[in-house]
Write a structure and sequence with these properties.
The protein is of the alpha/beta class. The chain contains 11 helices and 13 strands. The chain has helices at residues 19-23, 30-37, 51-66, 91-99, 115-128, 152-155, 208-211, 219-240, 258-267, 279-282, 289-299; strands spanning 2-11, 15-18, 41-44, 75-79, 105-109, 134-142, 160-170, 179-184, 192-193, 216-217, 250-253, 308-315, 319-326. The termini are close together. 53% of the residues are buried. The structure holds oxa(dethia)-CoA. Oxa(dethia)-CoA (UT7) binds at residues 28, 32, 36-37, 113, 152-153, 156, 192, 219-220, 222-223, 226, 256-257, 260, 284, 314-315. The site of oxa(dethia)-CoA (UT7) has 20 residues, from α2, α6, α8 and β12.
Length: 334
């Protein structure tokens, strides 16, 4: 059996936070943010809107587009660093219940911005081993809940949203995910982290800082490792699969920063048509950014059945991953 990406969906909350809005919140400018990141605006969830609410909405669209019955979904994986609840229950189980999926296997994974690629690799393994047939993978983030809006180094970057995909078993090799690379290096953990609130933080010195789950980032150092790691990773995965970059119809990178995307795209000699960019309107939505970007090209009609996508992500951990994925569309064979 091969694991085929058959369907995609996404949800974006309606409230928009523009660079102009941020100018009155922290010491920054629209010009600085756009020049350094490519971001103009990001969407922010309502205060009573949770990560599972957004994940559920994205999943509903992906399921409806797949034509599958609810009962056919046999595994749900949610990639998130902003779960509804700290530790438990998992956001995936809450999404399952909101979707009306009873007794389905459901769990979260924590791989930050690489979460969707990690989830894809787990779905692939479950399907190829024959354990599951139709896996719903979701990247959903309410990053506004863990963003410090007094820290100009991070608050200008992040947004909220969710994306979902259905990965199904197929006996047609041409529909199957070709390859996935994943990796991590915990020695860089301090570059991008939520230092407080876990078993590693000092609970005896509980204060506002220690009680918060705000993200902290060493932006410039992260930037440099991101460009180096992502470039090496995509060059390697294409080489291992004997694929020239001209065979890639859509390069769908994690949308962290336009300059990172441009550097990796240039290293692969990709033209503008091949590179999918959503960072300008959504900012960085961590684990949700890749499925949201795939959904964008699907809804605009750019993504056609058989198109080859190169996915590429990098995030806290540090973690990274890339994947070569044909869009199988409705041609799924179960
Ligand atoms: O998604 C997971 C992975 N994440 C990433 O890959 C993000 C990687 N990092 C980045 O995208 C970039 O490093 C940032 C956009 C976060 C920062 O851009 P940078 O070009 O690396 O800037 P910098 O941190 O080196 O700071 C340059 C200057 C500093 O001022 P001085 O020391 O030169 O006077 C900062 O204090 O820009 C200043 N600065 C700002 N100025 C206006 C930092 N943040 C801001 C801001 N507005 N928001």
């Amino acid at each position: 059996m091969y694991a085929a990406l058959c369907s995609i969906g996404a949800y974006v909350p309606s409230k928009i936070l523009t660079n102009a809005d941020l100018e009155v919140m922290v010491d920054t400018t629209d010009e600085w943010i756009f020049k350094r990141t490519g971001i103009k605006e990001r969407h922010i969830a309502a205060s009573d809107e949770t990560t599972s609410d957004m994940g559920m909405k994205a999943a509903e669209i992906a399921m409806q587009r797949s034509g599958l019955e609810k009962s056919q979904i046999d595994l749900i994986i949610c990639a998130t660093i902003s779960p509804d609840y700290f530790c438990m229950p998992s956001t995936a189980t809450i999404i399952a219940t909101k979707l009306g999926l009873e007794k389905v296997t459901a769990f979260d994974i924590s791989a930050a911005c690489t979460g969707f690629v990690y989830a894809l690799s787990i779905a692939k393994a479950f399907i190829e081993s024959g354990m599951k047939k139709n896996v719903l993978i979701i990247g959903a983030e309410k990053l506004s809940a863990i963003t410090d809006y007094t820290d100009r180094g991070t608050c200008i970057l992040f947004g909220d949203g969710a994306g979902a995909a259905i990965i199904s078993a197929s006996d047609d090799k041409t529909k199957g995910i070709i390859d996935i690379h994943t990796g991590s290096d915990g020695s860089f953990a301090d570059l991008l982290m939520t230092p407080n609130g876990g078993s590693g933080s000092a609970h005896d010195e509980l204060d506002r800082e220690a009680a918060s789950c705000f993200m902290k980032m060493k932006g410039n150092e992260t930037f440099k490792v991101a460009v180096r790691t992502l470039t090496n990773d995509v060059i390697e995965i294409l080489k291992e699969n004997n694929l020239p970059s001209s065979d890639i119809k859509h390069f769908v990178p994690h949308q962290a920063n336009y300059r990172i995307i441009k550097a990796v795209g240039d290293a692969l000699n990709l033209n503008d048509e091949q590179v999918v960019l959503t960072v300008e309107k959504y900012g960085n939505t961590s684990g949700a950014s890749i499925p949201m970007a795939i959904n964008d090209i699907y809804e605009s009609g750019r993504l056609q059945e058989g198109d080859l996508m190169l996915l590429d992500a990098f995030g806290g951990g540090l973690t990274w991953g890339s994947a070569i994925v044909p869009f199988a569309g409705k041609s799924r064979i179960i």
